[in-house]
Design goal:
alpha+beta; Gyrase A, domain 2; 3 domains; NADPH binding; 263 residues; globular; Thymidylate_synthase_ThyX_sf
Amino acid sequence: MAIDFSYKGKEYPTLVDLAKALPINSAKLVQWTEDADKFSAEAGSLCYESYPHLGIVNHCRDSGHNTVLEHNLFTFVKKVPIFVARQDMRARHATFDERSLRYVRLKDGGFEYYIPPELKKTGREHELDQWIYHHEKAFELYGHYTDEEIMENERARALLPLGIATMYTDSRNAVGWRHHAIKRLCLRAQQEIRLLYRSITKQLISKAPRLFGDLNMPCYMKQGCGESKPCGLIELDLKTNRALSYEKKLSRQSDSKKVYLTK
């Protein structure tokens, strides 16, 4: 397994230090199976006693033979608003370890909170000031309750808004990341988690392009749009529910099987 605790050219001694350095609503790949594409090819070739061409990975990925992909593990550390984390943690077949506000007291710069982009626009200065005031006031009261030992951390945390940052480690195999990324890359997903998964997907592709290189919005993938109420922003083929531009791309492929089975 490869491990990387660096961010923007700086190495951090521990995962805690790295997590604190991340901006809110971001994720950093910190551990992964090296040569994941090649190992998946090896696992797939064992099934057929064949040579481990990388095209096997494409074939298994696109055919839903998920066990070949599941041998590879990828771990991210994340710093996101609590409301994003609660959506993220709905993922199945994932392992999470989150900073516990039952035992950890927010102090010394640990109180970070999300500011929506709408409040950063010109003319929204008053609303932005209100947003900041209410979050800072909540932290002031939280500090008072805990400093004066009026109540324990675990109870005082109930006062804190859902926009404050939480940090956690998230490990999944390749299939787990694929499944949830497809759901969250959809334009119907909330913007914050959609942007988070764009970053996650980009990092996954950089380490294993065969396992993750096809990841996109669902309407640009084999399964097409599965929403009962599509976003209305992308023109879909009425039969397949896939983006028309994606359908045109498929029609230009003379023989998709030959494409998948190339090295």
